[in-house]
Amino acid sequence: MIPQIHNTLLNAGKFFQFTRNMSKVVKSLKYSKHGEPVEVIELVEDQLKNPKEYEVLVKVLAAPINPADINTIQGKYPVKPTFPAVGGNECVAEVISVGKNVSKLTTGQHVIPFTTGLGTWTTHAIFAEEDLMPVSNKIGLAEAATLTVNPCTAYRMLKDFVELSPGDCVIQNGANSAVGQAVHQLCKSWDIKSVGIVRNRPDIAELKKYLKSLGATEVLTEEEIRASTMFKEKQLPRPRLAFNCVGGKSATEISRHLADKGVMVTYGGMSREPVVASTAALIFKDIAFHGFWMTRWSKENYNSSQRTHMFSELCDLIEQGKFVAPVHEMVPLQKFKDAVAAALDFKGFAGKKFILDMQN
Ligand SMILES: NC(=O)c1ccc[n+]([C@@H]2O[C@H](COP(=O)([O-])OP(=O)(O)OC[C@H]3O[C@@H](n4cnc5c(N)ncnc54)[C@H](OP(=O)(O)O)[C@@H]3O)[C@@H](O)[C@H]2O)c1
Q1: What is the pLDDT of residue 360?
Q2: Is residue 77 annotated as a catalytic residue, yes or no?
Q3: How many other CB atoms are there within 10 angstroms of residue 146's CB atom?
């Protein structure tokens, strides 16, 4: 038999076997209007369909809850979904069956989204083959499920604004965020010093220890960095690059420590306060202030070699045990309201990323 026909029959056979063996119900977290996620999201059941020619049926294994997912549901994010919408942008899924013209994916493979806005908070989904990227099944579920947003953001911000050399230094606030944890780990792999700023908390010693174990050179609270002379006294070189996901005083403070002609990249606004650039920083130190949005970068570099190279480098680091998922808690799908409420807590200090375990 021609191998292609054989594969098609094999895949079709696997699909029918799969549908016979499982419930044909798909459970998804859907919303039909913007609002507070705990109020507008519902667990909805639909019938499972067959994938068309270029489509893939996947079983979603794990899908994180990111701040952008919450903001999208609230209607406060620039990406507006079509209603009814399934929440979530990231996941790791297993290929269950493929349409007859699918050529690059096979059953049993693990895949992650190659594009945003797919709606990943679901037990099963049918996606276009071109919207998925295979990842090694050796990569842990938490690492794979959280790969496309935060590690990529950290990677691009470290690569695209300042040409850093080994021994250079970067500074960041929100240093315990998922992006922050990724920055520390990439800096360690690339021999760059990273200084992390976090808000003070009762378990601060434990947090500092953890971030240093990931690769942070120094971790200071917002109060400590204000009084610190570590750059003035040359204990560390002045940072050439700063990352800001907080805004307000925290952003102004980290920009104050930048070297002349340094760059501050703002990628989030967790405090909801604006970024204030000091006049002296702009005039006398020639500090540049930039923004970064991963969604835009991915659209503009969709099929670029840079993007392929980034994913392969990140996957290699994960497989080598040099890059781990952010501190997280796996939450069964049934408990999605608790997870969303915890992720929404604007007082902060959640201390972990919530990842929906879609098969429990
Ligand atoms: N531009 C992009 O492309 C892009 C990509 C990825 C992420 N982001 C943004 O980056 C930020 C972090 O995302 P993530 O997924 O890494 O977040 P995360 O893991 O959920 O961590 C949230 C971080 O925000 C801090 N935080 C929360 N509320 C705060 C407040 N009121 N004031 C100061 N800090 C506060 C937390 O610190 P505590 O522990 O002190 O609460 C923690 O460090 C978000 O704003 C997200 O939207 C942007």
Answers
A1: 86
A2: yes
A3: 26
- Rounded to whole angstroms, what are the CA distances from 132 to 63, 80, 85, 91? 14, 21, 19, 10
How far is the centre of ligand 1, averaged over its atoms, from the C-alpha of 309 (Å)? 26
Closest CA to 204 of 189, 191, 221, 192: 221
What fold does the segment set 150-295 form as a domain? Rossmann fold (3.40.50)
Residue minimizing CA distance to atom 23 of ligand 1: 177
Task: For residue 180, give the H/E element and its range.
Answer: helix 178-189
Q: How far is the CA of 15 from the centre of ligand 1 (A)?
A: 40
307-345 confidence digits (pLDDT tens): 999 999 999 999 999 999 999 999 999 999 999 988 877
The answer to whether 197 and 221 have CB atoms below 8 angstroms apart is yes
Q: From the options 3.90.1070.20, 3.10.180.10, 3.40.1280.10, 3.90.180.10, give the CATH code of 3-146+325-357.
A: 3.90.180.10
Report residues whose beta carbon is within 6 angstroms of any ligand 1 atom: 66-68, 149-150, 153, 174, 176-179, 198-199, 245-246, 267-268, 270-271, 292-294, 326, 346, 348-349, 351, 353
- pLDDT tens-digit series, residues 271-282: 999 999 999 999
Structure confidence by residue, pLDDT tens digits, 174-224: 999 999 999 999 999 999 999 999 999 999 999 999 999 999 999 999 999
| CA 182 to ligand 1: nearest atom | 16
pLDDT tens across 72-98, in order? 999 999 999 999 999 999 999 999 999
Could you state, in order of their start, the residue ranges of all structural domains in the chain?
3-146+325-357, 150-295
